[in-house]
Amino acid sequence: MSARILDGRQMARQIVDEIRITVECLVSRGHSPPVVAVVRVGEDPASVRYASQIERLVASAGMGFRPAVLPASADDDLLGQTLGGLSSDRAITGILLQFPLPAHLSREKAVAAIAPGKDIDGVTPLNAGHFFTGRGRYFVPATPLGGLELLQRSAIPIDGRHAVIVGRSEIVGRPMALLLLRENATVTICHSRTPDLARYTRQADILAVAVGHPGLITGEMVAPGAVVLDFGVNVVNGKVVGDVDFASAVDVAGAITPVPGGTGPMTNAMLLSNILRAARWLGSHKQAEGRAD
Ligand code: NDP
């Protein structure tokens, strides 16, 4: 039997529409639309493409876009000043720093210069800490947030299920595990040092894979009826494929995300959702200061 396809593209379109309507309401009440600053160092082609994609995405939601492009030779001080300037700029709602940074730059120093209230990608230690404890206001990285949203909007039960996460990166695997734990799943995290990966993946009711190895998970590693979230984005012979061998897994799983068109578009939608969240926080600060905008 063929699995239900979890169409992230269609779901993301619906979320973007919802966000656009919210932005229109904000504007009609006299507020400025949220503005996101996308900061890049150098001209890495994938980062340039991603920035254009974000520009189109935020425009589609009625938001503003401010690019900040530094030369590849920029040092930690210049990057820190740029991020610090955007952090204190009242016209900027959210900041997205593009990775990877050139090797001579310190990720730690750069991230420290981003105001936590504008950290829409959830990369600052303060956000990560609040997320870990579940206390205070914080941003969750957009990719795992998109994975959770996709499960919830697809009415897939999480409470009491066994979720197996393959990959433990700070940006996808680990936060995905934490989100599912919050939803009362029993969570197992696998990584490159896990022996006999299939032994774990076959026990999953929900299998989330974020590794970066095309076709790592085959159908025989999936339990019949399991829900499979494939975060992998790999280019093989000019085609984008996931970490799950879709052709074999689709016959075993109960539901599965395609690549492309699954978790990727949901990441974009959640980035917009985080920008809106930042706008609301900024709005509550301004209200406290007695400013309309
Ligand atoms: P990282 O390289 O940061 O992490 C990969 C993880 O996979 C590590 O935890 C690593 O383990 C683990 N791993 C590596 N090999 C194996 C193996 N053979 N068996 C089990 N685990 C293994 O990658 P990211 O998390 O940043 O990205 C993962 C994938 O998700 C990539 O394809 C990336 O392009 C994609 N991605 C997709 C996004 C989306 O919007 N859908 C957004 C961000 C990323 P260890 O920790 O032991 O090294």
3D structure, described in words:
With 293 residues, the chain is of the alpha/beta class. The chain folds into two domains: 86 residues, Leucine Dehydrogenase, chain A, domain 1 (Rossmann fold), CATH 3.40.50; 122 residues, Rossmann fold, CATH 3.40.50. Helix content is 42%, strand content 16%. It has ten helices and eleven strands. The strands form three sheets. The protein has a six-stranded parallel sheet with strand order 1-11-8-7-5-6. Strands 3-2-4 form a three-stranded parallel sheet, sandwiched between helices. The chain has a two-stranded antiparallel ribbon with strand order 9-10. Helix 2 links the parallel strand 2 and strand 3. It starts with a strand and ends with a helix. Bound molecules: NADPH dihydro-nicotinamide-adenine-dinucleotide phosphate (NDP).
